[in-house]
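Protein 1 of 2
SEQ + STRUCT:
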Amino acid sequence: MTRLIGSALFFILAVVECNSFAYADDESGLVDQTSRPRVSDAANTDTGQNLLSGFSWPTPLRLGGCAALCDGWLGLFVQWRLCSTAATGELRSEPIGESRARNPITFYVSKLGDNTDGTSWQKAFHTVQTALDAVPDDQGGHRVIVRPDTYMEANLLPAHRGAKGAYNELLGDFDGSLGSGTTGHVVLDAGDPRKGFKSYDWWGNIRAYQKGWSAEHTKETVSAIKWDRWILRRLYATGGDAGFFFDCTDKIEPFSVIVEDCVSIGRAFGCGVASCLSRSDEPITFRRCHMWSLDEWGDTAGGYIRIENQSMPKFHDIVFEDCTMVSPQCALKGGNYGFHTYTHALVKNCTLIALNFSQPHGTPTDGVVQSVQNGKYLHVDFENCLLMGFKVFGVKVDKDSAGEIGYSTKGSALAYVQHTQKVPAGFHTLDRWPVEAFAKLAPPAPVKPKPVLTHRELVVPDLCEVTPFFWQSRLCLMECYRPSSGGAKKDYYLLLRDAKTGDPMARFAVGYGLASCHVEEGVFYAFASRFEGKNWNDVTLFQSSDLKTWEQKVIIQQENEHLFNSSVCKGPEGFILAYESNDPNYPGFTIKFARSANLGTWAKLPNAAFGTNRYTACPTVRYSNGYYYVLYLEHRLPSHVFETYVTRSKDLKVWELSSANPVIAPTGLDEGINASDPEVVEYGGKTFVYFTVGDQLTWMNVKRAEFDGTLQQFYEHWYIQPGIRDRGDMASEHLRATTQAKAEAK
C-alpha cells in the first residue's frame, strides 16, 4: 500500500512539474497544452465541454517544453494518460509509450523548387496541395510555408488534422522573412486557369462536397474536418464560390481553426464555418482578415457561420477580431434554411459593410447581420464595431423574429444605416459618412520589395523585339519587323536605328527575324532565324563593318527541330551563343548553347542546356564576374501568363535560378499577359532592360526599364540570397534518364 501511495504521489508531482512548463506561445491565442480527459480517439471529438462534469486532470505531454524533465529521473517511472471513453465516460489509463511521439516537419512550397520532398526551398513542392498531402500524421506542429506567388489551386484539404496545443500551420512568407527570397501575396486562386472566376457550388479554396446537392453532384461527400486545429496565416484566397470557408458536411464534430492576416474572397462566402461543433477553450477564430462575398443572390455573406448547437452556448463558438466583412447582401450571416441550431459569436474591433443602401420600396437587404431561419438562433456580442448597410439586423425566413437576434454591445458600437431605419438599442447612429471605415474595403496592399527596375516606359509601339547596341559611341537599336502571323517574305526584316534621334541606319536580312546582335572590333554581327515554310529555321549570321555591305551564312543548323530566338556574349573562353529550340525530346522550348572563337565558326555544346523540363524561351546571355547569366521567358503554367526570369551558371551545364524571380512581370494596365524578349545594355552607369509586353497573339509593344547601377550590379542583385538549383539542365536530365533506366531494369 505504501509503495502504491508513493508511486501515485510521484506520478502527480511528475504531471504537475511537466505541465508547469507546457504553455503554448501565444500570438495565435492557443490555450496551454494541458488537456481534459478526451472522448475516445476513434471519435476524436473533444468538445471542450467536459463529459465528466467538473473533473479535469492535467495530462503529461508526449513531447513538449517539459521533455527534458521527463527524460531523466522522471523517465524511470511509468507515465499514464487519463482518457475518457465515448461509450461509458469511464476513466481509463493508457501508457504514454503507446502514443505516437510528435515529430513536427516543415514543408516548403515554391514553383522554383525541384518538387522532390519539400523539405527545403531547394526541394520545395510546386503546389500547396502536394505539401498538405505530405503532412505525415495527426500529432500536430507541422508547417507548410509558401513562397509569394499565384497558385491556381482549388479545394485544398490536408492529409491530417493538427493536435491540441500543437496546431499545424499553413503560412505565406509575405515579407520574405522565412527565406523564400521575395515578398508579396500568396494567392490561392480557385478559378479556372484559362477562363477565370469559377463560381460553382462546392468549388472554392477549401475542399468540401455534398453528394446529392444537385443532380450534378454525384461524387462522394467530403468534409473539411481535416482542417481541424490548423492555423492559416498571410494568405490570399479567391477565385471560387467561397474563400476560407470550412464546411464539415457529414462530420458534425468539434472543430477549431485559426485564420489570421488573410484576404478571403468568394462568390457566396468570404470566410466562415458550417456543419460543426465548437470547443469552449479553442474557439474558431478569424483575426485581422478581409472577407468579401461578391454576390447578393442566394445564401451569401462576407462571413457565414453555422454551429450545430442544440441550445445557445454561454461561450463563443467563433471569434472575429480586427476583421472587415463585406458583401452586397450581408456582412455576417448565421444559420440556414430549415436549420434549428444555435450559434454564438464575438465580433470585436470589426467593420461590417453590406453594400446595399436601397430605398425601402426598392430591393433592400435584410440586414447587415442576418439570421436565416429565425432570430433566436443567432447571438452576437459586439465590441468596438461599425456596421454599415440598409439596416442592422434582419431574418430571411421568420422575418418578424428579427428582434429575437441576441446581441450585446461593449465600447463603441456604431451603425450607419438608411435614414428611415431605426438602430437597435446599444448602437449609436452615425450621421456622417464614415470615410476612414469605408476605406477599409480595400484589402491591404502586398508587401513589395523596393523596385529593382524603375521608370518603365513605352519606347517602340507595335513591335516585338529590339536589341540595344553601341555603334561608333552611339546607342542604337536593332528592330525586328514581322507580322503577328503569316505574311510574305518581304514583311520580315531587320532595321537599325539611332536610339536618340530615331533616324534609320540600315535595313537588311529580308525574310529573317527573332534576331540579336553583337559589335566586336568595329564589326556588326546579327544573328537571326529564317522564316520559311511557316516556321523558323536555323541561325544565320549577318555581318558588316559599314552597315551597307553584308555577308551572311548559316552558323547553327537545326536537327529535327526548329530554331527561334538567339543571343550572343563574350566570355573568357570565346563567344557564347544561346539559342531557342523546340527539340521534341523536351518540352517546348529549350535553350541550347554553342561556342566560337571568332563569331564565324560555331560548335554546339551538347551537354550545355537548360529548360529540359519546362518552357524556357527568348534568351539573353551575358557574362559577368565568373558567371553566364541568362534572362529568359517562363510560361507561368497553368495560367496563360509569361514572365522574364534570370538564371546563371559558371560552366553552362549546372544552372541556378534566382530566388527573387521574376525579373519582369506584366503588371501595368497596358502590359497584357506578357513580359518577354528581354535585352540589356549598360549606359551612363545605369543598366537598361528592354522587354516586350502584349498578348502573345495580336499586339506587342516594347518597353524599357532602368536599374540604377552597372550590369554586374544588376545581375548580382538577383543573387543576394543564394540561388536555387535549376533541375532543367542537362546534368539533371542525365540523372533522370539514369534513374528511369535503373527503374525499368528492375
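Protein 2 of 2
SEQ + STRUCT:
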Amino acid sequence: MNVPMRNRFGGIAAVLGLLVLASCADMGDELPTSPPAASESVAPVDRGPQDFGPAIRAAERHTPALMQRPGVVGTGVGLDEEGRPSVRIFLVHGQVRDLPARLDNVPVSRVVTGNFVLRQDRTARARPAPIGFSVGHPNITAGTLGARVTNGSQVFILSNNHILANNNNASIGDAALQPGAFDGGSEPNDVIGTLHDFEPFNFDSNNLMDAAIALVNPNDISGSTPSTAGYGAPSTNTVTATVGMGVQKYGRTTGHTFGTVAETNVTVSVCFETRGPFTCARSATFVGQFTVTDGSFSAGGDSGSLIVTASGNNPVGLLFAGSSTRTIANPIQVVLDRFGVTIDPTIPDGNGGPPDPDPDPTGPTASFTDSCSELACTFDGSGSTAGDAAISTYGWTFGDGNSGSGATVSHTYAAGGTYTVTLTVTDADGLSDSASRTVSVAEAPGEGELGIQQFNVSARTQGPWRRADVTWSVSHSGGDLASVRTELRSGTTVLDAQTSSVSGGSASGEHSVRTRSGAPDRVRLIVTDGQGNQLIEEKPVSF
C-alpha cells in the first residue's frame, strides 16, 4: 500500500473464513488495536492424533453460507477449547447472533478476531539484504523481504503482491526498493531489483496467494536472517502447516517471533477498502490458508515474511495479513510452485550472514588529562571520542562538592589533598560515558594556615622544681610544618624552653619545661612553618 491510500485501504478482511486481514505493509495508526477476545484460548494439542476430516468437509460445505452472514470474517478448522476438531468461525465482534453450535455433527466454536488487514523495520539499507529487512514497490509504504528464491539460473526476492506489485497496480519491470519508501528508500539509490512476476488479486473469485517475486543481483540478497538475529537460514525442505505446529518468523516490524498454527483449511475475506471499523466495501476471498496465534506474532510491516517451523526452519507459509488475534499465511509450497522457484539459503558474502539490522548504537568514550600546580588544576576532556553521534555536553565533578562543564575546565581547590575527578560526556542521541581519575594537590610552601588542635598543660612542684608537662597537636593546611616550641615564662622572661622539629601537615607530641628560680606564670606554644610564619598560644599556670 502506498502512503496516500492509507484511509482507503484500512484493512483486508480475512475469510478463514476471515473477513478482514491486517495488511503487512506499514500502516501506522491503521494497525489493529482491538485486544484479543477474552474468551478464546488455544486448545491443547497433546491429545494424540486427531481426525480433522469431518471438520474439513463440514467447513468446505458450509463456509459459503457462513460468509454471507454479517460479522463473519472467516472460517477454519482447528481444535476447540476441549481439544476436539471443530469448525472455527471468525467474527468481527462478539455480538454476532444465531450461529450454529454444530455443523454436520461437528462442534462449532466462535472466535472474535476483529478485522484482518494486510501486514507491511528491519528498516536499514543493507547489501546483501537479509531475510526480514524492509522492501517494497516505490508506491507503497514498506513490507518484508521474505526469502531468497531461485529458478536455477536467476535469483529473486519473494514477498507479497501488495508489497512488490502494489495491489495489482504495478508493471513488470517496476523497481523494488530496499529499504521500502516508508523507511527512506528511493530511486535510484536504493533499487535492489525489478518486479519479475506476481499473482494478481481476483476480486470476483477465490485467491490462493498474495505473492510476487523481484529479480535481483545474487550478490545483493542473502538467504539468511542476520547473523546475530532471527533464525538463520531456512531449510530448502518445505512442510505443510498442521494444527498445533510451532512456527517462527523474522519480519520488518516485530522481528523474530514465535507462534502456533491455530487453524488450517482456512477461507478468509481480506478487506481492501473499509467503511468504519466493521464494514468492508471491497474484499478478496482467499482459500486454503492457515492461521497463526497469538496476535503478537506479526504487525503492520511484517507482510511478506517467511514462516518456518520452530525446529528445523522448514518453510511453512508466506505471511500476508492479520488481525488483533491472528496472522494469515499462504501455504509456501503453493507459492513456490506458482513461480517455479525453490528456497535458496545462499549467503553471498560468505561471512556467516548479513549485518545485524538492529546493532546497538555506539556511544561516546570519555577520556581526559589533568595538569595541576599547587591548588589550581586544568582538566582537558577534548580527547574524548564520539560514537555514532557527536558529543554534545561535557560534565565534570571535582571531588570537593563542586562541578563544571565544557571540554576544558579549570578548578582551584580550597585545600591540599587527594580528590577523585569524574568526566561524563553525553552525545546527541543521549548516550553517555564516564571516566574518573584521582589528583593530588598541595598548597605552595608557606601558603596555608597553621593550626593548634591540642594544647594541654599540667603544672606541678617537684622539690625545688616548678614543672609544666605539655601535650600538643598542630597542623598546617599547606603541609609545611617546621617546628613546635614550648616556653615556660615569667612575664616576658623565658625561664625554660623545648623545641621539636616537625614536617608535613600535622604533628603531635609532648614537652616538659621546668625552673628552680623565678616565678613562672604562663606556658607559651609556638608553631612555625617553613616560611617562618608562626602561630602562638599561651596558657596561665600556677604552682
